[in-house]
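Action item from last meeting closed. Structure (167 res):
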């Protein structure tokens, strides 16, 4: 009887020690993770940031290409184009998915230098287009230009404005 009681007490003490050991190891692991972040700071780029110069260069390139093309439309003549963009360039990073029986966890795929692996880079979305050209006063020319711009940039016609150039 005394032996059985002693064995039960011994089992309880061992279970308590296991729980304490598990908590202690978990706390030590979290402390190590915290310390590794504090003493090894790595500069990582923001997920969807773009330098204004890059966005401006993209917009100017689009405006120039569109202006060159519209100038070739019969009746358009000399052309100036202005484009407005909704937002900057957006980067979508690759994700790694770990699935368990009851939960799923997603983490970014990191390269050797600590940066995230870019999966897709989306160009800025065009909001509106203004076209000023010599033939903009002719309805037929304005319709052709509106259809051209809409087809190229996937912009609805109510966001495209074609006007006559002042002489």
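Sequence:
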């Amino acid at each position: 009887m005394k032996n059985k009681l002693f064995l039960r007490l011994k089992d309880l003490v061992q279970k308590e020690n296991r729980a304490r050991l598990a908590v202690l190891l978990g706390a030590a692991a979290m402390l190590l993770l915290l310390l590794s972040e504090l003493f090894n700071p790595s500069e990582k780029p923001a997920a969807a940031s773009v330098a204004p110069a890059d966005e401006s260069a993209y917009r100017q390139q689009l405006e120039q290409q569109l202006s060159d093309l519209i100038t070739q439309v019969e009746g358009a003549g000399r052309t100036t184009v202005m484009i407005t963009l909704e937002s900057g360039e957006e980067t979508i990073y690759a994700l790694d998915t770990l699935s368990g029986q009851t939960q799923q966890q997603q983490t970014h795929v990191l390269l050797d230098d600590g940066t995230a692996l870019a999966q897709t880079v989306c160009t800025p979305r065009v909001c509106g287009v203004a076209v000023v050209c010599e033939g903009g006063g002719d309805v037929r020319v304005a319709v052709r230009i509106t259809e051209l711009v809409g087809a190229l940039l996937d912009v609805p016609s109510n966001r495209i404005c074609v006007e006559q150039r002042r002489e």
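Note appended to the action item: The longest helix spans residues 2-39.
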